[in-house]
Amino acid sequence: MPVKDLVLTSPDIAGMERIDDRFAGQFGAETPRMVVDGIPAEAVELALVCHDPDAPKPLGFTHWTLYGLAPLDGEIDVAAGRQGPNDDGGHGYVGPFPPYGHGDHRYYFWVYALSRPVIGEPARDAFLHAYGDAIIEQARLVGTYSR
């Protein structure tokens, strides 16, 4: 997967640090702000995905899919995107909620700069399968959480 100049940061989540409780499932799951920089000029759209590979499920747990984002540097306007499905059976952001005593889980927030727009609101795996060839660049921010 290509990695060059694209950077994903957050004023709410420090890389490889514990995610604050206000963004977690049992505390209201406030949606964290995400900031992107270094978007390639040829990008026509951004997609954002949050995934927990440590969840006790065969494919981990998808917490957030967001499509149709304008390829603009700066804070991502979550309201301007299309909220896709999460693995909790809904759409939009669902906060960390790992099993008690399961240890630290890693939450990968991925931003993808795409060469073509995403059609509809695919689940994470369907998106990666259908649009893997359209990823110009990708970047990630990883936070941790445990209960």
UniProtKB/TrEMBL annotation:
This is YbhB/YbcL family Raf kinase inhibitor-like protein. Gene3D superfamilies: PEBP-like. Keywords: Protein kinase inhibitor. Belongs to the UPF0098 family. InterPro entries: PEBP, PEBP-like_sf, YbhB_YbcL/LppC-like. One of its GO terms (molecular function) is protein kinase inhibitor activity.
